[in-house]
């Protein structure tokens, strides 16, 4: 075995960040960043790219060793066999597929787990690793000069979203209308309680008619408020979306050509589309999270006012579901990132095929390009299925938890009715309020999770928004008169076979000239 002597077998319980490469040739840089995060040096690719320039041809093993040394990590290159991977000090960098670098996260006698800057987290059977691993690995460990620090340059929402006076006014109107709608929602269970306890059980038709008329009028106001709220949020969504996209596109047009040479077209497009979830959270998510939080507190207080024991059961069930969602937050974040990357690769291949269709036809490569795209489309579908499986599991568990809590509440409440502590109308209203509390708290939880998952989209947008503009791009263009001559002899260009085969021109310059049939 190897270049650096015996392999050390040391393990730890630290957390390692997954850095996804944005450029085609920065897998080595991303791998060093992931290993550095394991030891406490947390950074992002934008910062690494700015401090450690990488050639368009990528990084060699020597380049990786040099970058690691600047960060404060000592390196030791080793050559090892497949059965010796489990003895490597993890995380380690592996040379992969002859032209790629990945990070070995863990290994045992049967499987290895890697963090691939291009594909994300992957797991392989040991016998399948030989198709990819070249036998060269790099162990990294902190030196006395190593310092734990955070060197991130995050893109802030305030730099993407600019709200003027009219937008703030519309946002306030949307908040007020949303609060009005929620008041109507809160009154509905109480309406059922009055109907059951006061009108039905006492056979009071006049009261029933009065209550029904009153709540019918409230329903009219609710519908009107719903329409106005929809119009306000439609305005907000479109205005914010246009401003964000226009600002980012304006910045993107001023990036140097090397930025576009190092990235795939589909990946840039996908990064631009990450503005959508950011807009949704700013326009709808923030307001609804505020409203859901206020209403959840109000409804919770109502439940405890009805019956403290039943209120405690309802809140405990929702808390249990929240803890479950929190436990799998990192898994959801990783799977969301995998889906975004898979969609970007599929879009890239699709756009490149369209753009090179003439070459594809001439080379007779239709089947080859079709197979390539189908494989990438299958990766997208598989990533979607993995997220769908997680969501199905969440739905099933939430139904089980909330359903069992409802059964227990009905059982205890029925005993209370028999004992004279509650009425049938109170049970009906309590169950309705419980359902509202579940909806509000679960919506609030989903908004919080969406906010945490927003890091995935912000990191992708940051690759465009934080990239340095081309120097002098905004300088005024020097305008001066150009003098000279242009002589065209037998220049050929035809839109159709029957048009003139060529043209010879000697127009004075500068002057616009056109050729007519």
- Strand proportion, as a percent range, falls in 5-15%
The share of residues in helices is 55-70%
Spans of at least 5 consecutive residues with low confidence: 1-12
Shape: globular
Write the CATH homologous superfamily of the largest domain: ABC transporter type 1, transmembrane domain
Task: Describe the sheet with the most strands.
Answer: 6 strands, antiparallel
Mean pLDDT: 80
Radius of gyration using CA atoms only = 31 Å
H/E series, N to C? Answer: HEHHEEEEEHEEHHHHHHHHHHHEEEE
CATH class of the largest domain: Mainly Alpha
What is the domain total for the residues?
3
Could you name the CATH topology of the largest domain? ABC transporter transmembrane region fold
Please tag this protein with its features.
Cathepsin B, Chain A, six-stranded antiparallel beta sheet, 517 residues, two-stranded parallel sheet, ABC transporter transmembrane region fold, alpha+beta, disordered N terminus, 15 helices, 3 domains
Task: Give me the secondary-structure topology.
Elements (H helix, E strand, L loop, with lengths): L26 H12 L2 E3 L1 H7 L9 H11 L1 E7 L12 E5 L3 E8 L3 E6 L3 E6 H4 L3 E10 L6 E3 L5 H4 L4 H36 L4 H48 L4 H5 L3 H9 L1 H32 L1 H20 L1 H27 L1 H7 L2 H53 L5 H42 L18 E2 L2 E4 L11 E3 L2 E2 L8
Parallel strand pairs: 1-8
Antiparallel strand pairs: 2-7, 3-4, 3-7, 4-5, 5-6, 9-12, 10-11
Helix pairs in contact: 1-3, 6-7, 6-10, 6-15, 7-10, 9-12, 9-15, 10-11, 10-15, 11-14, 11-15, 12-14, 12-15, 14-15
């Amino acid at each position: 075995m190897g270049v650096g002597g015996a392999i050390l077998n040391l393990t730890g319980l630290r957390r390692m960040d997954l850095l996804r490469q944005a450029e085609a040739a920065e897998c080595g840089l991303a791998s060093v960043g992931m290993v550095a995060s394991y030891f406490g040096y947390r950074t992002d690719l934008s910062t690494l790219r700015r401090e450690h320039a990488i050639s368009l041809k990528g990084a060699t093993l020597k380049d990786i060793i040099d970058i690691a040394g600047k960060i404060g990590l000592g390196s030791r290159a080793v050559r090892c066999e497949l059965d010796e991977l489990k003895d490597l000090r993890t995380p380690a960098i592996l040379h992969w597929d002859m032209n790629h670098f990945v990070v070995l996260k863990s290994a045992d006698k049967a499987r290895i787990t890697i963090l691939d800057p291009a594909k994300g987290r992957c797991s392989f059977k040991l016998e399948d690793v030989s198709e990819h691993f070249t036998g060269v690995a790099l162990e990294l460990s902190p030196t006395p000069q190593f310092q734990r620090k955070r060197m991130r340059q995050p893109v802030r929402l305030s730099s993407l979203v600019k709200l003027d006076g009219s937008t703030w006014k519309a946002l306030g109107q949307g908040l007020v209308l949303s609060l009005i709608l929620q008041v109507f929602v809160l009154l509905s269970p109480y309406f059922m309680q009055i109907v059951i306890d006061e009108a039905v059980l006492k056979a009071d038709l006049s009261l029933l008619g009065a209550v029904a008329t009153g709540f019918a009028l409230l329903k009219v106001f609710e519908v009107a408020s719903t329409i106005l709220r929809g119009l306000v949020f439609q305005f907000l969504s479109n205005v914010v979306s246009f401003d964000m996209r226009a600002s980012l596109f304006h910045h993107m047009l001023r990036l140097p050509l090397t930025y576009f040479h190092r990235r795939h077209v589909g990946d840039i497009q996908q990064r631009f589309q990450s503005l959508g979830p950011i807009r949704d959270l700013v326009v709808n998510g923030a307001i609804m999270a505020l409203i859901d939080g206020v209403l959840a507190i109000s409804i919770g207080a109502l439940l405890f006012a009805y019956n403290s024991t039943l209120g405690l059961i309802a809140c405990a069930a929702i808390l249990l579901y929240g803890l479950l969602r929190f436990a799998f937050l990192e898994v959801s974040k990783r799977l969301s990132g995998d889906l975004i990357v898979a969609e970007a690769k599929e879009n890239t291949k699709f756009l490149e095929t369209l753009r090179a269709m003439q070459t594809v036809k001439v080379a007779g490569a239709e089947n080859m390009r079709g197979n390539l795209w189908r494989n990438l489309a299958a990766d997208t579908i598989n990533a979607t299925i993995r997220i769908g499986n997680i969501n199905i599991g969440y739905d099933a568990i939430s139904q089980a938890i909330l359903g069992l809590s409802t059964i227990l509440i009905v059982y205890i409440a029925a005993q209370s009715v028999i004992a004279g502590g509650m009425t049938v109308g109170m049970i009906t209203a309590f169950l309705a309020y419980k359902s509202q509390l579940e909806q509000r708290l679960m919506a609030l939880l989903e908004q919080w999770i969406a906010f945490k998952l927003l890091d995935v989209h912000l990191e992708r947008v940051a690759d465009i928004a934080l990239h340095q503009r081309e120097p002098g791009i905004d300088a005024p263009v020097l305008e001066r008169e150009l003098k000279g001559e242009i002589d065209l002899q037998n220049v050929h260009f035809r839109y159709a076979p029957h048009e003139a085969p060529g043209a010879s021109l000697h127009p004075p310059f500068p002057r616009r000239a056109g050729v007519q049939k």
